[in-house]
Sequence to fold (1088 residues):
Amino acid sequence: MSITLDIKYAARLLHKKPVFTALTIFIVAIGLGLTLYTYSLLSNLVFKPLLLNKDTPIISIEAEFNQSHLFRIGIDPYDLLTIRNEMDSIDEIGVYQDRTSLIGNTQNNSVTRKYNSVNIEWNVFEFTGVKPIMGRVLMAEDHFEGAEPVIVLGYDIWQHYFMAQEDIVGSVILADAIPTRVVGIMPQGFAFPMTAQAWLPIKQELLSPTDWSRNGLFAYARLKKEVPFEVFQQELALLNKKVVKLLPDNVRWRMDDFEGYLRAVPYKKANITQFYSIFITMAVVVLLILLLACINVGNLLLARVNERFKEVAIRVALGIPRNRLILQMLLESIFICTIGGFLAILIAGWGLELSNTVFEQMYMATEQKPFWWQVSLDVDAILLLIVAVVAMIAITGFIPAWRALSGDFNAVLRDGTRGSQGKKAARASQILVISEILLSCVVLVIATILLSTSYSAGQADYGVDTNNRITATIELPVVDYPIREEEEFELADTLKRTAFYYQLKDSLEQMPNIEGVAFMSQLPGTGAGASFFEIEGRVAAVYNENPYSNNEVVSRDAWHAIGMRVIQGRDFNLDDISAEVDTIIINESISNDFFPDGDAIGQRVRRAFRNPDADREGGWQTIVGVVSDTYHGSAMRTSSEQYSSYFMLDHIGYSSIDVAIHYNGSQAEAEKSLQHAINQVNNNATVYNMQSYDELISQPMILVSAISKVFLLCGVIAIFLAASGIYAVAANSISQRTQEIGVRRALGASDSKIMQLFMRKAVWQLVIGLSIGITMSLWVVNKMTDTMVINQGSYMVGLIAIPLLIIIMVLVATYVPTRKIVLMEPSDALHHD
Amino acid sequence: MKSNNNTNNTTDIRNAENAAQVLVNLHEIKKIFYTDDVETHALNNINLTINKGEYLSISGPSGCGKSTLLSLLGLLDTSSSGSYTLAGHDVSDLNRDERAAIRNKEIGFIFQAFNLISDLTVAENVELPLTYRSDFDAKQRAAMVNTALEKVDMLHRAHHFPSQLSGGQQQRVAVARAISAKPSIILADEPTGNLDSKNAQIVMALLDQLHQEGATICMVTHDPRSAARAERMIEVFDGKIVADQRTETPTAIAV
Fold:
């Protein structure tokens, strides 16, 4: 009954001060909402193990992540066989190769369409515990040489491409122009290993190789129940040492500079290695915001206790038991945090919905969204929320309860005033202000640097003209354009593929709406392939002390189509195909930095490798031209290099290549023209990822840009929390010293002396808070640079503007309440209650 | 006529002597507090003169305005009307900083609740008013602090914090702080109100001693025994001075 009275009293107090109540609930809701959102996001995307119908997590076994290009690398099938044979701790294992397949229908001669497919081991379906909805899954016999080509289709292909054809199982379709029998249909949503829409048997020779090769495979595995993942990693590290020693020279390129090669990673984490540090940064920032919110709410409640000090003193005088007093102080926290917790669910739910939309946009063109990238609130998240609410009640309730218990009630009751601030309370206030400064600094610096970097990257000049340009990827059918391994066919096959591209280019450029066509291995603004290069006469002693450049394959007469210019020398021409000397074109930066006298033309360069005898393909190449600079890769990626070298398409003739088309008129018309021209040249060729050049450039930025928006939100919230929190803490701390100010003024201190006293203290708090805050920010930002390029401007904004902003906030937060008290008559200040 | 002239001359000389002795002169002082629509006349047409070296007590029932009067005397508050002359200077219309400077040089305060700053040591508390002036260097300040603490017999606790002292000791430190800058007048607001009888006696004896050494003391108290220690007793009622009498022989403190 008496507790009911306390509850009613707490509710009445909250109702009496609606602004205070709304503000504290808002802060709690934001802090908890962000935490819940981030937990759900990271848990779904990264941390929650992928189990798929079994109780042991799936792991990925692959080569060390390529930090310079930011992509995953497969393991040599021969080494995977070693892992299979030697590692007893593995319970189940299978291998796969990601690819795309051009799916066609033999019956109605329809247009082929590109789908994400995978060449995979037959056991994948048993491994995942998923059964087909029609037909059968792959079998061991399907791998054998000479076996009939078979395919298991995903639900979407069956529904949308084959229009849910009922007798699809058993029928023959085209997969990369090869007649292939459909043996089964998988249920909706099944896309293991990551984005697969069709499953084809991997070649038996890759499952039981007899030697090393240039192939790379990824493995999915489950460990035996009794084997912890960390133990397996140690075992694999030992095996790695053994394996790298055995690697023959021609495959030693597989290991990194630290002789790392084999690695095991939790399956989800493996897919976001390049974003991992950003996600972790996000988690850190959100935790700091939660802490900031806790401090703010705790402080607001502390201020409340100060207001209620006399009431507390009277209760103590009336003999309130200690635990009852603590409960009373906690009651307001319980109300506030519980309501805030409910609102947090709404905020997090809204954020997750928004994230799902971003993921859809991000992977719209490539359809490369991992199947588990569908985020939602789950039971774990709700449990976390409950724990967080309880923790927040404890933190925010503890501070006022401690204050209530530590006061000098006798003095309060005797003097009618709440007494001057004790030494402990004063120190607690200082710690609160310093914590606010420190946390705000870290959150705001990180958010600002990331935002500024992301904005700069979005505004980056990639050196190309993206207006009225569409881009696409073209893939040639293997049947019509084979890549035969025998050396005598190499030139003929290359010429045949190249001929397709130039025919397509001619066909397009004859159309009135097409201004120019460029083929390039990867267009400026997108991911790049890079290596070291040597300059004749200036070869460094160690291969990796040579300069580093992007290497792109480009068609003749391509530059103008993407707004690039030949600055010196000439473009590739037909004579280069049969010339005895290999030719190369470099960009302006290489020319300026290494041939400052303008004498680049005629000089010779070549790729530099760790093991030149085994790895080198080709010899010296003569520079015939210098073109304008472009930026390959996202401006935020560490792999983006300022140096670029261009090789002639005619010498390589990739079976899949990017195309950029400069058009006039509408984009839709240009896309139609491209499709039409491809059909004219070879209607088995497939075009996909068709989009504007601007969309292409923005693709790698979408996730970072989305996370930046979360950081922006965090930044705005942090500014709000920091401003209100610093003000509230400072005002509360200063207000508790009202009587002291009165005494000082009674003793003759001038206004300016009092102001100086408090401002000096604020400056000290700033010095301590900012020193720690900036150091912590630099540490976190340094971690972020593993996967991001942070530009100088962002550092300037983050490390100068933010501390300045905080300095202003703290000084204002100190000046305003101090001034308010100083303006009181000393007699009022002395008797301030 | 001659005798008249003589009388006039005598009066003029006495007035001149009086003028030289007058330290505080309040003329028609009013203090009105406004709370919402309520107007409270805390002080009503107060006229009061305090001479140098005088020891007076102000007493009266709770809410009569005695503490308000002390606040006005101490320039802790401003009057609603009337004039106030302190040591020959009109201090009625000074700005905040000028008032602060006068408080610092001319007035020493002793509060009922001691009002020592808890984070400062005893010596630092006593030194505090001296630090607001530029005419003493650190050495001089230290000497003045030692003198003041010696006078109240608290030198041995100079480096303690207020929380480590008893109430009586704290009040003695407050007295030392009040006299450290050698003010023209010491204003004491219920100086024994928070003390037990033994400590009250010590503090009152200190005030006696200060008075004997020439200090001007104005003390607000509702304790008749403390009031009887003063040589002049003023009684305030409903914001007015209703009695102003000199005691022939101030009573030795009896508790």
Summary: The radius of gyration of chain B is 19 Å. Chain B touches chain A through 33 residues (CB under 8 Å).
